[in-house]
Amino acid sequence: MESNDVRISRKKPIFPVSPALQKYLKIYQRESKLPITYDDLRMFTEAFPIMDKNGKDSLWESPIYANDRIEELHNGLKIVYANLKASGNLRIVQHKYIDKIEYCTFGNTHPFRVRIVNRLNDVYDYFYVKKADASRIYGLELEHILSPNQVNYLVDRETLIEEHIAGIPGDVFAKSYLQNSEYNPTRIAKEFVKFNERCLVMLLGDMRAYNFVVQITPDFDDIQFRIRAIDFDQQFYEGNIKVYLPQFFKENFPYVKLGMDHLTEKTYLQYQQEEKSSLLHRVRSERHRLTDLRDVSNTEVLTTVENINTLKLAMSNYLEDPQYLECRSMTDIIELNLKNIIRQVKL
To answer: What does the alpha-carbon distance between residue 203 and residue 235 come to, in Å, rounded to a whole number?
Structure first.
């Protein structure tokens, strides 16, 4: 695996949710009528910066709302949480209260992070309120269908609600946990290889270390790891193939080096093949949903013609497959990725 710095050309525009995508979301129970929208939360009078534990600007702000709006916002957000977690069953929020609403000034979607606390035991949870972006929604759907991870989110017109994905941020893990003598470095390297493979197949871009988390699970006689994407802003927009390969981001070099130190070419190819076999199983299990998603996304404009042409040429060269030159959309490229996996695994 190589490691080079990759620069993303510019901020990706936000694409609106089309009627066709809205229909798909309704069919697969991702649509929900919500009492609070993203624009409601944007109506704060002022905000003050939130500092991290080291006294540096966290890029999050604490918005201040008019006193006569706070109760309405908090009650509405509790209903949003009930819809996200329990199909609208309000009993789960009976003893909960909204503790914090925080606004992020960084990134494309400028999300709100909401902390909700159980007053009986002080256990808390987070969820996010964002401006709905069609390409981000496609990223969430592909992650849910093709990765080993379930993704929980809801959409109401121009508002997107996302469940918090727990884990140690990839940059924090690399700095503070990677050298832990109790952790098997080969297992971590193996997971990064699989993550790298999934990102290319699904065309999920910009997976720098701070855009994924590492989940740690103790097992019988060892510790298991899983890398999970937490940011889906750069779903099949860019034309640079390296954007879809986490191994090329300088922020991920500690993981790349781990693979170089602990994996041979044979084991690297073995782990790639394992992930392809898992992807094949998911494709077979969710083929009808994938077909519906493909049919919707192929009717939309979610990137530029230039980006499509650049990427299909790069994919053709990288995978030594001229069939990519026939692709007319990013969706076609993903579909060909999956067809190639089906052919390879069957061999």
So the answer is: 6
Which CATH number fits the domain that encloses residue 177?
1.10.1070
DSSP for 104-167, written as a single string:
E-SSSS--EEEEEEETTT--EEEEEEEE--HHHHHHHHHHHHHSSS---EEEETTEEEEE---S
Segments forming the whole domain that contains residue 330: 168-346
Which among 142, 163, 184 is the end of a domain? 163
User: Does 242 reside within a domain?
Assistant: yes
Q: What is the DSSP string of 202-233?
A: HTB----GGGEEEEEEE-SSSEEEEEEE---T
Is 336 found in the same domain as 264?
Answer: yes
Q: Is the pTM of this model over 0.90?
A: yes
Residues 65, 117, single domain; the answer is yes
Residues of the chain by 3-state class (helix, strand, coil), percent to 5: 50, 20, 35
Residue 13 lies in a domain: no
- Residue pair 4/98 in contact (Cβ under 8 Å)? The answer is no
Residue 229 token pair:
């994407």
Distance from C-alpha of 319 to C-alpha of 307, rounded to nearest angstrom: 18
- Alpha-carbon separation of residue 174 from 43, 232, 238, 263 (angstroms): 38, 21, 26, 18
Question: Mind listing the pLDDT tens digit of every residue in the chain (347 residues)?
Answer: 444 557 675 678 899 999 999 999 999 999 999 999 999 999 998 999 988 888 888 889 999 999 999 999 999 999 999 999 999 999 999 999 999 999 998 777 789 999 999 999 999 999 999 999 999 999 999 999 999 999 999 999 999 999 999 999 999 999 999 989 899 999 999 999 999 999 999 999 999 999 999 999 998 888 999 999 999 999 999 999 999 999 999 999 999 999 999 999 999 999 999 999 999 999 999 999 999 999 999 999 999 999 999 999 999 999 999 999 999 999 999 999 999 999 887 65
Query: Is 121 found in the same domain as 87?
Result: yes
Number of domains into which the chain is organized:
2
